Structures are given as C-alpha cells and as structure tokens.
Amino acid sequence: MKIKNIIITFVSALAILFSTSVVSLAKVVGDKIILGSAISLTGKYSSNGVHTQNGYNMAVDRINSMGGVKVGGKTYKFEIIYYDDESNPKRAAQLAERLISQDGVEFMLGPYSSGLTKAIAPVTEKYGVPMVEANGASRSLFTKGYKYLFAVLAPANLYLDVAIRTAVELNGGKGVRIAQAFEQDAFSQDVRLGILDAAKETGSKIIIDDKLPKELNDMAATLAKVKATKPDVLVVSGHTKGALTAIRQIAEMKVDVPMLAMTHCDAAKLSKQHGANSQYALCASQWHKTLTYKDDFFTDGMTYDADFTKEFGYAPPYQAAESSAALLVFKDAFERAGSFDQKKVRDALAATNMQTFYGNIKFAEGGQNVDKPMVLFQVMCDDAGKCENKVVAPLKWASAELIHPIPKWSSR
Amino acid sequence: MVQATLDGVLLGILFALIAYGMALQWGVMNIINIAQGDLVILGGYIAYFMYLYGIHPAWGVIVSPIIMYFVGVIIYKLVINKVVDRDLFISILATFGISILFMQLMNFAFGADVVLANSGYGTTMLFDNSVTLPNSKIFSAFISIVFAIGLVIYMKKSKLGRAIRATAQNARAAKILGVDTEKVYAATFGINAALCGVAGALISITFTIHPYMGLPYTIRSFMIVIVAGLGNLPGVAMSGMGLGMFEEFADYILGTEFRIGSVFLLLVLILVYRRFKLSKKREYLK
Fold first, then answer.
1. Residue A153 near residue A366 (C-beta atoms within 8 A)
2. C-alpha dihedral sign at A13, B97, B212, B255
3. d(CA B277, CA A11)
4. What is the pLDDT of residue A268?
5. For the domain with range A158-285+374-411, which CATH number is right: 1.20.1440.230, 3.40.50.2300, 3.40.1000.70, 3.40.50.300?
6. What is the per-residue pLDDT across A204-254, written as a single tens digit (0 to 9) for each?
7. Which residue in chain A is spatially nearest to B110 when comparing CA positions?
8. Domain A23-154+291-362 - what CATH class?
C-alpha cells in the first residue's frame, strides 16, 4: 500500500510539473512554420485519417524540397504537429484547444470527416486561427458564418447533383423517378439535400426515400422496394459500407435499374472487392487522376498518382489528393500575405484564386470551394474482368462515354 | 411481401444461432456477454482472411469456430472466471470492457475498412424473378440450422453436454456430485465463442464486417433471449425468425429509418407484457 501511495504521488508530481512547464512552441520557430492537426489515426475513421495524413505529409515534403515558403524575403519550411483524435469529435475539439493554447499553433489543417471538422471549427474560430480543411464537405460547415474556415473541396450537396442532371438530360429533359437511400449522418444527409434540390429544379420525383441506420449492413428491404417500383435512378450514400452493401445486394437480388449513383466508391475499392458486379456504377468523386489541372509542385493528377503510389505503396484516393492541395493553398496564402499575422493570412486565404493539380480553388463567403465541380466516374470492366474507374461527367474531362441505361442482369 | 418474409426468415435463423450461444452461457454462468457481437465480428475476420489467402470463405464455418473456441476459453481463463459468481452488473461491466478492447484491437489489427468475403454463390430466383434469394443467405441459414441441431444433440448425448446442463440447473449440486464446474464454465464460454465464430463467418459471406459493427448483434441476441427465455432452443429459433421478419417488414413498410427503432419498441412491449403477466400471477399467489 505504501509503495502504491508513493508511486501515485510521484506520478502526480510529474504530471503537474509537465503541465506547468510546457514550452509554448510559437507558430514560427526559426525557419519553420508549424501547423497543427488533429487526425483520426485510430478509431472508425482511421483508414481515411491515414490517407489524409499521407496527403499532408506528401505535400509538406514536396514544398520543403522545392524551396519552401517565401515570406518577407525569408524562406520557411512547413512542419505539422499531429495528434490522434481517435475518430471522436469531443477528443478532436480538446486536441484543437490543446494545439492552439498549449502548443501555440496559429494555423491549422483540418481533420478527417465532416463531423470532426464541425467539432473543431468553433475552437479555431474562437481563437481566430485560420484552418484549411480538405475532408469536411457537409453544407452546414459553410452556413454558420465561420470566418477562419476554408475548405478546398466541393460541398456535400453537390456530390450527386451531376448524376440527377445527367439522368434528366438523357431522358430528353423530362424529370426522372428517383429512389434514394442515405445513411443518417451529417454528410450523407447533405448529399440527400442536394438531390432534393436537383429533383425540384428538374421536375423529378422521389419515389423511395430511405434513411439507412449507422450500423447498416443489410439493404434488402430497400432493394425489394426498388424492384417493385422500378425507378429511373437509384442513389445510395452511406460511406464505404453503404457502397459495398449496395453493390453486393444489388447483384445478389438482380435489381435492374437504369442508373446507379453512389458516393465513396473510391474508398470502398468497389471494383477490387466486387469485380464485375460493380460494373456500371456511377461514383461521385472530388478528384480523379485523369483530370487535367496543373500546378508547379505535383505537375498534374497522373504525376501525383505515380509519386504517391511510389511513396506510400497504394494509389491515392481523393482524400489524399485534397489533403495535399490544402498545403498548396496555405503556402500560396502565406506568400501573398507576406506575414504571419493571422488576420492577414486569413484575408489572403479568402482571396485565394489558384489552380492546383487537384482543381481550381476559390473560396466563397462561407469558406467552401466554389471553383471545382465534382466528377462522376463509372466503373467499367473489360472481358477479362479487370475493372477501372473512368470519368464520364462533366463532359469536359470525360475519358469515356457514359453507359446508359445499365444492361439488365439477365443479359449480363 | 414474399421477398420480405423470406429475407426475414433467413436473417432470423442467423440471429437465432448467435442468440442460442448467448442463452447457453447466460443460463449456465449467469453472465450477459456484451462482447457477443464482437466475437461474431472476430469470427468474420477469420473467414475474411481465409478469403484473402485464396481459400473459399465457406471453409470459415469450420475453421473459425475452432479458433474461436480457444479464444473463448482464453477469455474465460483471463477474465470471466473472476466474475462468474458475482452479480450480473459486474459481468456486464467486465464483458463491456472486453467488447471495447476487442473493437480497438480489431481496428488496430485489421484496419477500419469495411470488408466482405465473396462466396461466388449465385442467386435463386423464384416466381418469375420477382423474388430473389441469394444463395449465400440460404447457405447461412442451412449451416446455422446444422450447427444448432448438432449442438442440441451434443448437449443431450455427450458427457460434457450433460455436465453443462447439470451445472445450469444447480451449480452447487453438480459440484458436489463430482462435476468440475470450472471446466464446464470454460467449455460453455468456448462453445458460445465458437457459435459466434460460425455466425461471423456466415455474416462475412452474406453481409459486411467492420470492427465496430458488433453491438447490433449483441442487442439482437439479447432481445431474442429475453423473448424466448433461457434454455429454450425452439423458442430461440422462433423468436429469432420472428425478429428477422419483423425487422424486414418494419423496413419494408415503415422505411429503413424505423428498422432498429421498431426492434427496440418491440422489446419494450414484450417486457411490459411479461411484467403484466407476472404481476397477475403474483396476485393469484397472494
């Protein structure tokens, strides 16, 4: 008992000592610009969290090795302090607080997912810390009047908007009948709102509107309804598990639908897990390597894809690409601001108007990027069963023609 | 309608298998295992890894329970044997802890990606293609029934089965009569884990698995056991199928958002009804 007490006293003394003696790392130390980020390295978002971190790291290395950031005649290098938020919004908010008030970070990079970004944004806003984020697309992030939040990606409500408009166009401009199933989380519900808007504008009708539970792994009932009502378009958004479950059960239940549009096919590695069953699925994506945007650091999408694959051993999903783009935006803003004053950097960020390999970046009042449309790709397989994602919309970047309607299962 | 009924029945049989494991160890050891669902998911990962290494995942229904049996025995030796005689609350806390540990370990070991194993089984079409039954679901139901029947026979005929039943009835009396209850408990927990392993392998073939997907399976099996009562296998099977059908119909008629909610509503109704019946009985006794 005595020894236990001594240990407890000792540990608490150490804890108090450390908590009072943390040296405040200023935002710029010597020739380093220190950015902070809470990121999901464990927990349910850990795979996408790691993609985000790899994207950030790749850009930091690239920018540093190509001359760094030039501010006021001096050259600086980027460095990032990471903390693991365990995929937990509360933890993320605590860590943001810690990064800012204890570690003295004055510029932040976003976490992974809309939910976590929502948890962190009030903190960065409170301290007036500019945050460039690359993985929070929920529309509600951009309607709160945040002044220090900037997102390089297109907002969630635009994800599948293109799909509905394409379907209407192919239907001779007449409205279509839509069946939709969305998970009940901030992101998917925003995608849903986008569809509702598009349906209203095009005179389309929503005939099935299911909300999928978080623990979703069975969509048989929704698909039975789809079979019975025969809609023109089926839209599914439920992160990776939604995409995987939908493809598996559509194939098993032989559900024939002229167009199938979904999100997160990239992360779900649809064609790898499901092979030819995933053929013809339309997927919304923030980025695709074949897009022809260019910049000085990563050249273009194909080069980024090759470099990333070489460094990390897997092809970059769009989550990594957009994370890399966030660093390019920061560099550009620092150089234009010519200062590390948070207010000036914030104003420089707001005035961003640039092209990166990931796409054009220009922020609206709310902080969302309004200069980069979403792309739709379609899973296409050859006779040998090898599948590839090909961009089919918008037409400007299309590398293949959309196959519509999807052939019936009986003729596949 | 037919589609929803058949989907529900096939799903329910699978639930019943998981619930049977829970009923068994609840009855024998008086432990509510919150980690039940996580054992299921771990079983699923075993089948998934076999699939990754080119072995057909259906073999998982044999390999997974064997591995899971030992996992169950190890959990028993490390944790459960310390809480087995304590009150229910302690066991819930302990298994809740195991559940969290398993989730994090699985996430650490296998990653947070949603995965599935493709069985390559086709689809059976009925009534001119208007009703489709994935063969993987039929396979799952069939295997579940085989294991359930096998277990019932084992419990009736084998020495260990008799010892388990004796311990369930009266652990002290069984001990006095020479039953090594410690061994019986370990075996019971192992058998439960093995059943979870079978169910997990089947789930990886029919649905998807993910480190954090265990809890819904725990809740469903808990509910089935509550409805059917302990040690009542036909009851477990019936209430499993009933629950599966109820879920599918709630989903089909009310919409997917009411699926889980309606399951909980049903649970509340059943508990209220049971209480009502019990209070009547008590009045009569008075």
1. no
2. negative
3. 56
4. 66
5. 3.40.50.2300
6. 999 999 888 777 778 888 888 898 899 999 999 888 888 888 888 888 888
7. A47
8. alpha beta
Q: Is the pLDDT of residue A275 over 80?
A: no
d(CA A212, CA A233): 18
CB contact under 8 A, A254 and B129: yes
- For chain B, the domain total comes to 1
Q: Which of A211, A217, A248 has the CB atom closest to B257's CB atom?
A: A211
Q: How far apart, in whole angstroms, are the C-alpha atoms of residue A356 and residue A324? A: 10
- In the chain, the amino acid numbered B198 is V
In tens, the pLDDT along A57-100 reads 999 999 999 999 999 889 999 999 999 998 889 999 999 999 99
Closest CA to A50 of A314, A394, A409: A314
Query: In three state form, how does the secondary structure of B213-255 look?
Result: CHHHHHHHHHHHHHHHCCCCHHHHHHHHHHHHHHHHHHHHHHC
Residue A38: which of A113, A139, A127, A125 has the closest Cα? Answer: A113
Q: How confident is the model at residue B208 (pLDDT cuts 50, 70, 90)?
A: confident
Q: What is the mean pLDDT of residues A370-387?
A: 85
CA angle A94, B210, B12 (to 5 degrees): 130
pLDDT at A405: 87
Tell me the sheet residues that pair with A260. Answer: A234
Domain range annotation of chain A: 23-154+291-362, 158-285+374-411
Question: In whole angstroms, what is the distance from residue B242 CA to residue B220 CA?
Answer: 12
Token representation of residue A334: 């620092």
Kindly report the number of other CB atoms within 10 A of residue B264's CB atom.
Answer: 11
Task: List pLDDT tens digits, range B74-90.
Answer: 999 998 888 887 888 88
Q: What is the distance between the alpha carbons of residues B114 and A48, in angstroms, rounded to a whole number?
A: 12
Q: Is A221's CB within 8 Å of B130's CB?
A: no
Q: What average pLDDT score do residues A105-128 get? A: 92
Share of chain B residues as helix, strand and coil, in percent rounded to the nearest 5: 80, 5, 15
The residue with greater pLDDT, B102 or B134, is: B102
- For A131, the enclosing helix (H) or strand (E) is strand A131-133
State how far residue A369 is from chain B, nearest Cα, in angstroms: 28
* Partners of residue B112 in chain A, C-beta under 8 Å: 43-47, 87
Let me know: does B185 contact B76? Beta carbons within 8 Å.
Answer: yes
Q: Is residue B138 predicted with pLDDT exceeding 50?
A: yes
